Amino acid sequence: QQVPGFALVVFALGFFTSARIAEQVRAGVQALPRGQRYAGMAMGFTTAQTYRYVILPMAFRIIVPPLTSESMNLLKNSSVAFAVSIAELTMFAMQAQEETSRGVEVYLAVTVLYAVSAFAVNRVMAFVEKKVQIPGFVVAGATGGGH
Fold first, then answer.
1. How far apart are the two ends of the chain, measured CA to CA in Å?
2. CB atoms within 10 A of CB 49
3. 141 in helix, strand or coil?
4. For 32-88, where are the alpha helices, taking DSSP H only?
C-alpha cells in the first residue's frame, strides 16, 4: 500500500522542524547562567520543578526570535513540499494561469499571499516576544531602541 503524499510531507516537515526546535531549546537552556539552576535547587525544587519554573520560562524568552525564523521557514518549506506532492497555492496558481492566460497577475497574487502569510507569522511572534519579555533582561538578537 502506498503512503499518501500529504502524510509523507507532514512527517518529513514534522521531524525536520522538531529537530531544529529541539536544538534551539537546548541552546536556549545552555545560554542561561548556571546560577539559574542553582537558584532553583536552593529553593528546594526538584530537577523537574527547576526546569519547569525557573529554567524553561527564561529559556523560552531567549528562543522566541529563533522560533520566529523557524515559523517562517516552516511556512516556506511547506510551500515547496506541497508543490511537489499536493496541490496547494502554487499548484493552484499554475492551474489558474493555464485557464486564464494571466500568468503575471496570478503569480503576483500568489506572491502577495505568501508575503502576507510571512508578515502575519512575523507579527504574531513579535507580539509573543513582547508579551514574554522581562524588563531589564536583554537577550541576544533582541531588537529595539538603544539608550
1. 63
2. 14
3. coil
4. 34-42, 47-50, 56-85
Q: How far apart are CA 118 and CA 68, in angstroms?
A: 10
Q: What is the pLDDT of residues 75-134, one digit of tens each?
A: 777 776 665 554 566 667 777 777 787 777 877 887 787 778 778 877 887 888 787 777
- Cα separation, 56 vs 41, in Å, equals 14
Distance CA(49)–CA(58), nearest Å, equals: 14
CB atoms closer than 10 angstroms to residue 142: 13
Could you give the 3-state DSSP secondary structure of residue 5? helix
What CA–CA distance (Å, rounded) separates 74 from 67?
A: 10
CATH topology of domain 5-132: MetI-like fold (1.10.3720)
| Domain ranges for the chain | 5-132
The answer to whether 90 and 79 are in contact (CB under 8 A) is yes
Q: Which grid cell sits at 125?
A: 511572534
51 DSSP 8-state letter: I
Coil, helix or strand at residue 2: coil
